[in-house]
Design brief:
The chain has 335 residues and is of the alpha+beta class. It has 3 domains: 87 residues, no CATH class; 90 residues; 152 residues, Heat Shock Protein 90, CATH 3.30.565. The chain has 10 helices and 7 strands. A 5-stranded mixed β-sheet has the order 2-4-5-7-6, covered by helices on one side. The protein has a two-stranded antiparallel ribbon with strand order 1-3. Helix 4 runs antiparallel to helix 5, helix 6 crosses helix 8 and helix 8 packs antiparallel against helix 10.
Length: 335
Amino acid sequence: MSDVFKIFLLYLKQNTIFIALGIISLIIFTSVFFLYSLPLEPILYAVLLTFAFIAAVYMLCFIKFYKRHMALKEIMDNICVSDYKFPDTLSIIEEDYQELIKKIDRHRLDVINEKNKSYSNMLDYYTIWVHQIKTPISAMRLILQSEKSDINDELLEQLFKTEQYVEMVLQYIRLENLNSDLMFKNYSLDSMVKQVVRKYSKLFIRKKINLVYENLNRYVLTDEKWLVFVIEQLISNSLKYTSSGNISIYMDKTRPCTLVIEDTGMGIEEEDLPRVFEKGYTGYNGRADKKSTGIGLYLCRQILNRLSHSIEIESEVGKGTKVKIKLEAQKVEFE
């Protein structure tokens, strides 16, 4: 009811000039009666009838105004629908405004369609590129593995990093349509983490980083491919920013369904912690490294959100970083 009253006040404000003209007309009308010394009773009766007539007209006009306002509000609430129908116009100016809005909307849709087409073409190109680049990478790996040497080992490590960057590009492209690619099952957490450890075993050996691994003994309702990708990113980060010491993988003792990946690396600045999951944010460590993209942790957060998991980071500069992945998922009931 208060909304109707506010709209009524706005309507009165919009029609102030007409209200003023009505009041002035009544004053003139009354003055003429008094100048001719006519009896008071017919004057008051005439004023009352005139006032009642004007009030009735204003109320009818307000009802029409209110209906038009609600019709426009409904259009605004459903603005994503482009074929909306405006209320009937009351003047040529209103008709001009409606035509102008429709013309702007048609132009907006043309721009959006063009952008969507360009974006789709770009995604297709990069998807094809990612798959094509894997062929020469595989060929280079075979060539480098055919002869053992320190140089080849170094090149293999760089090639491994290249593969990881290519994989990150592919997952970034797929992120927008991630929901259609998910397959939820109960997977062994030990199996998933050990996949990643085996993949990065040479880097552990090369950097002389100790792996402290506790059996996880958990099954998790998740998508294996995407959760493995997240764990890869986190272990890769730990290896990247840890020059000596340990990387520990275990289940949180106080939160039994929470996976912890802890390292003894350089740590993260306190002021950087609230922003490490932002897209493109590299922080102090990233600026010092000059190779960080600020995409890895952003992807991790986005993927875990889609998997109904969550992630948090604790860190202290010079002592290391602790990443916690809460793997509890909401129960899904099938009808």
